[in-house]
Amino acid sequence: MSFLMNEKGDALFMPSDSLTVSNLSPTADKNLSEERTDIKAMQLTTEAYESLHKANKMTFLPRLNAFGSYELYDEKAFQGGASGYLVGAQLNWNLFDGYKNVGKAQKSKAQYDQSILAYEEYISQSNLDLNKAKRMVSDAENKLKLTSLAMEQSKESLRIRTNRFKEGLEKTSDLLLSESQYAQKQLQYYQTIFEYNYAFHYLDFLTKE
Question: Any idea what DSSP says for residue 59?
Answer without folding.
Answer: G
